């Protein structure tokens, strides 16, 4: 096995080890950046929903308070306003969803599904928990879920949700007396749940990962070519020439010229040593002839 082959095998092995480490680290970083980006989008959606809820409670509800005495208007309910606004968003971005899911909602369309109920129970079991972040697989791809608990903090909410007898008749007429009652103060009755798709950013991140790995391979190939050229001119070519001269001298050829290699490196030292050995051998042969 030649010196060039050994050199390339060692360099290739070192590159493959480095490539594997770089692949693991870069893939982890890409996945982390994708998740952080999606989570940031989910937080923006959640804050938008909170802003809509706050605006409805402060600005809209007082304006229609008088009408509420004769007819229940869901537009005054912050959760209704937030979800209605986000339904307009889902018309253009159907994979982005916002829902205020509840175990016992007034509006049946807000009833929690099985996985949403699990989130609500997680908040009910841990009163100190302020948010929940999870990932789940759906038919359209992986989705990141951000959830905040919905806890009854205002006794005014119990006016409509304690018993059917205390609720506005117009609300009972609209939704019926079977749902949305029996709520208690400081009880977590549901959760704000934002779902953001991860498929597009994951694909983008995967393409970036592949591009990065391909760039590393190209850089390695360029480096290995340059190193082989340097190895040939700086090491292999001088060593092969010295080896040929040594073979010629050993065969008795006396007219072999000296090999000159300028510089202060090891090859130059080797050539100088070879030339001294050659001169010493010639002197020894002349002394024997004499």
Description:
The structure is a single chain. With 290 residues, the chain is α+β, with helices and mostly antiparallel strands. It has helices spanning 3-63, 65-68, 78-92, 114-125, 158-161, 169-175, 199-250, 266-289, and strands spanning 97-102, 132-138, 141-151, 188-197. The protein has a domain at 47-198: Beta-Lactamase (2-Layer Sandwich). It contains eight helices and four strands, in the order αααβαββααβαα. It has a four-stranded antiparallel beta sheet with strand order 1-4-3-2, sandwiched between helices.
How would you summarize what this structure contains?
62% of the residues lie in helices and 12% in strands. The protein has 8 helices and 4 strands, in the order αααβαββααβαα. The chain has helices at residues 3-63, 65-68, 78-92, 114-125, 158-161, 169-175, 199-250, 266-289; strands at residues 97-102, 132-138, 141-151, 188-197.
Average pLDDT, rounded to a whole number, is 81
Q: Looking at CATH, which topology of the domain at 47-198 would you report?
A: Beta-Lactamase
Ends distance: 44 Å
- Strand runs, count: 4
Q: What's the architecture of the domain at 47-198, going by CATH?
A: 2-Layer Sandwich
Number of helices: 8
Element order: H for helix, E for strand: HHHEHEEHHEHH
Question: Percent of residues in beta strands?
Answer: 5-15%
Q: The biggest beta sheet, please?
A: 4 strands, antiparallel
Strands of the widest sheet, in order across it, are 1-4-3-2
Q: What general form does the structure show? A: rod-shaped
Task: Flag low-confidence runs.
Answer: none
Instruction: Give the helix proportion (percent range).
Output: 55-70%
Structural class: alpha+beta
CATH class of the domain at 47-198: Alpha Beta
**Integer-rounded radius of gyration:** 39 Å
């Amino acid at each position: 096995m030649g010196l060039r082959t050994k050199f390339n095998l060692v360099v290739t092995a070192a590159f493959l080890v480095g490539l594997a480490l770089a692949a693991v680290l870069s893939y982890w970083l890409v996945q982390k950046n994708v998740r952080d980006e999606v989570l940031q989008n989910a937080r923006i959606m959640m804050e938008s929903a909170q802003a809509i809820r706050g605006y409805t409670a402060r600005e809209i509800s007082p304006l229609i308070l008088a009408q509420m005495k004769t007819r229940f208007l869901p537009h005054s309910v912050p959760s209704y306003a937030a979800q209605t606004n986000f339904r307009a968003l889902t018309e253009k971005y159907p994979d982005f969803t916002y829902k205020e899911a509840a175990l016992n909602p007034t509006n049946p369309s807000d009833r929690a599904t099985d996985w949403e109920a699990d989130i609500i129970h997680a908040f009910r079991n841990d009163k100190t928990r302020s948010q929940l972040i999870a990932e789940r697989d759906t038919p359209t791809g992986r989705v990141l879920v951000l959830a905040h608990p919905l806890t009854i903090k205002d006794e005014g909410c119990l006016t409509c949700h304690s018993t059917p007898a205390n609720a506005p008749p117009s609300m009972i007429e609209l939704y019926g007396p079977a749902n949305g009652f029996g709520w208690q103060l400081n009880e977590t009755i549901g959760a704000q749940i934002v779902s953001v798709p991860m498929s597009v950013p994951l694909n983008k991140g995967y393409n970036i990962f592949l591009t990065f790995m391909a760039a590393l391979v190209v850089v390695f190939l360029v480096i290995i070519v340059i190193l082989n050229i340097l190895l040939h001119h700086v090491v292999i070519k001088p060593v092969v020439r010295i080896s040929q001269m040594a073979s010629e001298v050993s065969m008795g050829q006396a007219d072999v010229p000296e090999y000159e290699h300028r510089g202060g490196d090891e090859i130059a030292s080797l050539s100088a040593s070879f030339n001294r050995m050659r001169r010493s051998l010639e002197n020894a042969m002349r002394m024997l002839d004499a």
